[in-house]
């Protein structure tokens, strides 16, 4: 058979791990399948008995018994099939759900580097598509394979009982049949692999562009996207046709092979019957067994095929599970309480080994100080903020909060003590409460309502139909830009961090909202160290220190008033020209 990509040990390991809790269901399943198998083997014997007694026609009683048995066994067989399907579906779903949970959890633990380099579509394909492909592997594979092999062996043994010629003839046929089907398969399989790859590409492409519909349309890229769409479809169709032709060829081969098998069975039985060595009932039985043989051979073939699909999925899931987060959690040195002092010591960072985005950044903020972080677009301001929260680690240099290098703190602790308000707030589908607390039930409703009030969101809050239980749309569709920003502030207030990083929205808001935001920022800064990535003069005026980034390097750092008073400084020139113009 075709070589598999993974060692047997891994299959066994996977099956063991995910089926451990379901031992009794699997035992039950095995018993049912063996019982079903036995009934399949018994039925032809009953028919033979029926035919032979009918010919002798002495009494009707034997016929009745044979008929009743045949019907009874057939019915029972159906019941067994239903029960076995039910159990195996359950086993498969419980196992794959467990795996799905593990993979999803793993994806959540992976960091920005991973999520930036994988489209949502491709992650969904892993968590859903690939794992679905494993359902059968978990629930059915071993048992079906074993029971169908047993069935083939059982049929052959029963045929040998009728005479070695019949047995030997059928054994040769089975070997040839499997060989022929395997041979034709070789031509069909590669196309299936290609088909799956193309469909993954297609859905990756689709989900990426559905997420960005608004941008696509706004930028007039619709034609380009449609062009790409159609070219993907054009590649898809011929591959699909070839894959299905391959499948049809396989199917026809199977039909022909079994027609030949039947012919052989007929020829042999006719010969033996003329000899007088078998009865007409036996002739029918041999014929019936030959027909029955098609089923397990077909099943074994589909199981092996399925294993190969599972194989590819297992490899991909393994790869995903083996991807280690680049950010390792710290040992757990506790961060100091209250406003946090910040020290950056010669910090250098580059995204994916490119040119340094931040180069030799070196500064210190006293507890409670406000830093205004300025710089043209692309100068590295947001990147600096990401480093503070350890979304990425710098390649060299150390960031300290108080005396604690942030690599030594627990990530959970770090992200609780450092709050970030980004340019675009992520609203997920859920209640207002969950959006604000991120499911932290330790935060009381009173506190949430108080914070909303402090931020001037009380009239918005009163307009909600179900208070904190009101649903928000994912993406924040129902919120104005100002409200979204204020909600982001509320999140920060609720965790009460010692350092706040505020990546100010560069878009302009209406004056009333501006005012509310101003008041909220004042509250936000109180008793906290703060880094504000500022786009507007009003915000800059709050800063104690100013840091101007230029191409990832510090162009200027110092006390705001000193810099403003120095006509030579970049900052004072910026103020002169109007910083909105310089930084826009
Ligand atoms: P803006 O004022 O427009 O928000 P910024 O100063 O915040 O700009 P950054 O977002 O820090 O700029 O980007 C700094 C540089 O790093 C840019 O050249 C940008 O292209 C690059 N960059 C940002 N994010 C990534 C990323 N995830 N992967 C690779 N490069 C990135
Ligand atoms: Mg930015």
What does this structure look like?
The protein is an alpha/beta fold and 584 residues long. It has helices spanning 8-19, 23-56, 61-109, 112-117, 120-132, 135-161, 164-211, 213-218, 222-275, 280-322, 381-388, 411-417, 432-437, 445-454, 458-462, 481-495, 511-525, 537-540, 560-565, 570-577, 579-583, and strands at 342-349, 358-365, 370-375, 396-401, 404-405, 418-421, 430-431, 471-472, 499-503, 529-533, 545-550, 553-559. It is built from 21 helices and twelve strands. A six-stranded mixed β-sheet has the order 6-9-10-3-11-12, with helices on both faces. A four-stranded antiparallel β-sheet has the order 2-1-4-5, covered by helices on one side. Strands 7-8 form a two-stranded antiparallel sheet. Helix 17 links the parallel strand 9 (499-503) and strand 10. It starts with 7 loop residues before the first helix and ends with a helix.
Summary of the model, kept short:
With 584 residues, this protein is α/β, with parallel strands linked by helices. Helices cover 65% and strands 10% of the residues.
The largest sheet is:
6 strands, mixed
- CATH topology (fold) name of the largest domain: ABC transporter transmembrane region fold
Overall average pLDDT: 85
Q: How many domains would you count in the coordinates?
A: 2
Radius of gyration: 36 Å
Shape: elongated
The CATH architecture designation of the largest domain is Up-down Bundle
Low-confidence stretches: none
Main sheet: strand order: 6-9-10-3-11-12
Bound molecules: adenosine-5'-triphosphate, magnesium ion
Number of β-strand runs: 12
Strand content: 5-15%
Question: Which class best fits the helix and strand makeup?
Answer: alpha/beta
* CATH top level assignment of the largest domain: Mainly Alpha
Domain ABC transmembrane type-1: 28-309
Keywords: ATP-binding, Cell membrane, Hydrolase, Membrane, Nucleotide-binding, Protease, Thiol protease, Transmembrane, Transmembrane helix, Transport
Protein name: ABC transporter ATP-binding protein
Transmembrane segments: 24-42, 62-87, 133-158, 164-184, 244-265, 271-290
């Amino acid at each position: 058979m075709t070589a598999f990509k993974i060692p047997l040990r891994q299959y066994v390991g996977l099956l063991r791990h995910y089926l451990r809790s379901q031992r009794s269901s699997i035992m039950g399943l095995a018993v049912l399948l063996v019982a079903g198998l036995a009934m399949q083997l018994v039925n032809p014997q009953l028919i033979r008995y029926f035919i032979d007694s009918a010919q002798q026609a002495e009494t009707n009683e034997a016929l009745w018994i044979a008929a009743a048995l045949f019907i009874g066994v057939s019915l029972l067989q159906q019941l067994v099939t239903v029960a076995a399907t039910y159990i195996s579906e359950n086993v498969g779903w419980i196992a794959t759900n467990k795996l799905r949970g593990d993979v999803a959890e793993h994806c959540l633990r992976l960091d920005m580097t991973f999520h930036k380099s994988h489209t949502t579509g491709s992650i969904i394909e892993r968590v859903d598509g690939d794992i679905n492909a494993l359902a059968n592997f978990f629930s059915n594979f071993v048992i079906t394979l074993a029971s169908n092999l047993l069935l083939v062996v059982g049929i052959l043994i029963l045929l040998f009982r009728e005479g070695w010629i019949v047995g030997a003839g059928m054994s040769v046929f089975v070997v040839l049949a499997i060989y022929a089907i395997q041979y034709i398969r070789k031509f069909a399989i590669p196309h299936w692999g290609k088909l799956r790859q193309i469909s993954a590409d297609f859905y990756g492409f689709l989900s990426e562009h559905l997420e960005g519909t608004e941008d696509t349309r706004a930028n007039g890229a619709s034609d380009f996207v449609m062009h790409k769409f159609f070219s993907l479809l054009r590649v898809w169709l011929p591959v699909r046709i070839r894959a299905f032709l391959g499948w049809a060829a396989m199917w026809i081969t199977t039909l022909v092979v079994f027609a030949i098998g039947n012919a052989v069975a007929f020829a042999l039985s006719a010969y033996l019957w003329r000899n007088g060595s078998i009865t007409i009932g036996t002739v029918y039985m041999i014929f019936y067994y030959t027909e029955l043989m098609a089923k397990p051979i077909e099943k074994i073939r589909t199981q092996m095929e399925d294993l190969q699909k599972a194989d590819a999925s297992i490899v991909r899931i393994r790869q995903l599970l083996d991807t280690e987060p680049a950010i390792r959690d710290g040992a757990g040195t506790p961060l100091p309480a209250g406003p946090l002092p910040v020290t950056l010591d010669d910090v250098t960072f580059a995204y994916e080994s490119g040119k340094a985005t931040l180069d030799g950044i070196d500064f210190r903020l006293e507890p409670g100080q406000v830093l205004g972080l300025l710089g043209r677009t692309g100068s590295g301001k947001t990147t600096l903020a990401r480093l503070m929260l350890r979304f990425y680690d710098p390649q060299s240099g150390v960031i300290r909060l108080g005396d604690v290098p942030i690599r030594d703190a627990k990530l959970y602790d770090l992200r609780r003590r450092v709050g970030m308000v980004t340019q675009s707030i992520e609203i997920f589908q859920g209640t207002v409460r969950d959006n604000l607390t991120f499911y932290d039930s330790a935060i009381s409703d009173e506190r949430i309502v108080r914070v909303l009030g402090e931020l001037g969101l009380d009239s918005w809050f009163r307009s909600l139909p179900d208070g904190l239980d009101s649903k928000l749309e994912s993406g924040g569709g129902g919120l104005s830009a100002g409200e979204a920003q204020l909600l982001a502030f509320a999140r920060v207030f609720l965790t009460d961090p010692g350092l706040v990083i505020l990546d100010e929205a560069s878009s302009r808001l209406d004056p009333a909202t501006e005012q509310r935001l101003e008041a909220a920022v004042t509250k936000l800064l109180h008793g906290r160290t703060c880094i504000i990535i500022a786009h507007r003069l009003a915000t800059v005026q709050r800063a104690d220190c100013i840091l101007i980034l230029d191409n990832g390097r510090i162009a200027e750092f110092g006390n705001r008033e000193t810099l403003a008073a120095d006509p030579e400084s970049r900052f004072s020139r910026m103020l002169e020209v109007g910083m909105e113009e310089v930084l826009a």
